[in-house]
Amino acid sequence: MPQYKAPLRDIQFVMHELLNAEQHYDKISAYAGTNRELIDGIIEAAADFCENELSPINHSGDQEGCHYEDGVVTTPKGFKEAYQKYIELGYPSLAVSAEHGGQGLPGSIGNAISELVGTANWSWGMYPGLSHGAIRTLEHHGNEQQKQVYLSKLVTGEWTGTMCLTEAHAGSDLGIIRTKAEPNEDGSYAITGQKIFISAGEHDMAENIVHIVLARLPGAPKGTKGISLFIVPKFNVNEDGSIGERNKVRCGSIEHKMGIHGNATCVMNFDSAKGFLIGPENRGLNCMFTFMNVARIGTAIQGLAAAEGSFQGALTYARDRLAMRSLTGPKMPEKEADPIIVHPAVRNMLLTQKAFAEGGRALVYLLSQFADIVEAGDNEEEKKYADNILSLLTPIAKAFLTETGYEAANHGVQVYGGHGFISEWGMEQIVRDTRIACLYEGTTEIQALDLLGRKVLQTQGALLKDFTKIIHKFCEANKDNAAMAEFIEPLTALNKEWGDLTMQIGMKAMQNPDEVGAAAVDYLYFSGYVTFAYLWARMALVAQEKLAGDTTETDFYNAKITTARFYFKKLLPRTRSHVEVIATGVESLMALDAEHFAF
């Protein structure tokens, strides 16, 4: 079983050398003075917690799973104790504003910690992870009483939160949910219905669970315009803030799943449970999107975590495992065979994992900085611009990082060969745990439709142009840098093609709207590869500049340039196949009548 080691040097590279975190924070008055010493100290402490507390219970948590009996869920051995330590270290309150009892640090630091937690033990990390979205929702949409009663306990970590959206008949189509909310005389509401796939919906790690629930009021409009949002606690809260009687919400069962066994995925039954309206009536989905954006970035982090964790395990094994001789002659003649890392096919898998992990880290951390500006920026124009970039990049990050993370996880199994299929090595667990990331918070296909349909075509390309201009300016600034030509020339061409491809799809969609659905997934992959190309070119430039100066870390920076070169030569050409598939249009997809699919 691979022992997780936090990639602190690469985190420091991305935060300080690529994204200039200190300067970024100084531009936001709420975060001014957040210096490197503080940043690195927090992340190093989190790394120690993740390496020594969470990683050791990752495999055992998967093997044991959660226990369900008569509505009660018990988490795997060690989970509850690790959560108490997590609270003692102050992590739940880290990125919450001081106004609401938090430490007031930037969300981008919180996301860096989420990466560490998720790579060490994704199942465990989902318990406190779901609370972040509940906190954000209450911060933005809760009234003062709700903040005092519920937010304060979520911030300390004494209570945890969930998001209750999905129903068995509805899936991602929230417009057809049936859970209802009937007004009570005391101003509360009676919530009745069933929600499924509720992560951390019931557990023994906190004394209360605050469910954020979508439901319909009597007479509400049909569709998404008639959904309201409610707080429904596991235990009602007395006027003095103490825990009261059990609310009428109960875990009916837990799902038997492919992966994330250490996290309870629950069926939650609401039987006239007492709830409280958050925000305006029939505007619940708008309020929930505060939660959803946080959740989607969190899911993107799972893709990053899968790539990093699988890469660490595969690299360790590839250095030690002996099999066959190098085709160019023995590399370790004193041994009976060479380590498999000498073979080009194994190198290809390892470098793919490395490129996806480090590229994913750069994208998540860049996204997190834009989220900082949206959350606490001082200038409304800058906040709007950052929100536009975030709106475009979030579906790319969520879908592309989870798909590439899943690919990287599969490479990890492949590097191990037959041993990768055996549970004791831990590589197959990463595959199982990661597969869900391509599904929840909106499948890859739904994210693709969101990107192409809503974010690009419905804005007539405005959001896309905001980002392609960033890439264009970078390319223009470096077009005369001979050392960067191998990166700048293909990036410039692909950046232009991104706009041309969008226009071609848009023209076809005017004749047949199904062209959007036919092109969307390939368009998202194309967008993801180009976005990574931009980030890898930036990382290569930073590395070149460091090597031109006075540095003792030549190996580190040379590895950055070499990985960037691998990405451009071996992975970026995948864009060609996506362009070709898009060009074929919708006809072959819709030609076969639905009734003729069967034998």
From TrEMBL:
Residues 282-450 form the Acyl-CoA dehydrogenase/oxidase C-terminal domain. Residues 42-158 form the Acyl-CoA dehydrogenase/oxidase N-terminal domain. Keywords: FAD, Flavoprotein, Oxidoreductase. It catalyses: 3-(methylsulfanyl)propanoyl-CoA + oxidized [electron-transfer flavoprotein] + H(+) = 3-(methylsulfanyl)acryloyl-CoA + reduced [electron-transfer flavoprotein]. One of its GO terms (molecular function) is oxidoreductase activity, acting on the CH-CH group of donors. InterPro entries: Acyl-CoA_dh-like_C_dom, Acyl-CoA_Oxase/DH_mid-dom, Acyl-CoA_Oxase/DH_mid-dom_sf, AcylCo_DH-like_C, AcylCo_DH/oxidase_C, AcylCoA_DH/ox_N, AcylCoA_DH/ox_N_sf, AcylCoA_DH/oxidase_NM_dom_sf. Its EC number is 1.3.99.41. Coiled coil: none annotated. It is an enzyme of class 1 (oxidoreductase). The keyword Oxidoreductase applies. Residues 163-272 form the Acyl-CoA oxidase/dehydrogenase middle domain. Residues 467-593 form the Acetyl-CoA dehydrogenase-like C-terminal domain. Pfam families: Acyl-CoA_dh_1 (PF00441), Acyl-CoA_dh_C (PF12806), Acyl-CoA_dh_M (PF02770), Acyl-CoA_dh_N (PF02771). Its cofactor is FAD. Signal peptide: none annotated. Belongs to the acyl-CoA dehydrogenase family. Involved in the assimilation of dimethylsulphoniopropionate (DMSP), an important compound in the fixation of carbon in marine phytoplankton, by mediating the conversion of 3-(methylthio)propanoyl-CoA (MMPA-CoA) to 3-(methylthio)acryloyl-CoA (MTA-CoA). This is 3-methylmercaptopropionyl-CoA dehydrogenase.
